Amino acid sequence: MQHAMTWKATALALSGLGAALALAFGAAQTEEWTFAVSGDSRNCGDVVMPAIAAGVLKDSAKFYWHLGDFRAMYSVDDDYVGAPKVVGLPFYQHHAWDDFIEQQLKPFGKLPVFLARGNHETGAMRSREDYVKKFEPWLDGKAVREQRKRDGGTGVQSYYHWIEGGVDFITLDNASDSSFDAAQIDWLKGVLERASKNAAVKSIVVGMHAALPDSLSAGHSMNESPDGTSSGREAYRELAELRERTGKPVYVLASHSHFYMTDVYNTPCRIEKKQEILPGWIVGTAGAVRYRLPAEHAGAKEATTDVYGYLLGHVAADGSVRFEFKQIREADVTATTRERYKSELIHRCFVQNTSKSVPAGAPQPPNCPE
Question: CA end-to-end span of the chain, whole Å?
Answer without folding.
Answer: 70
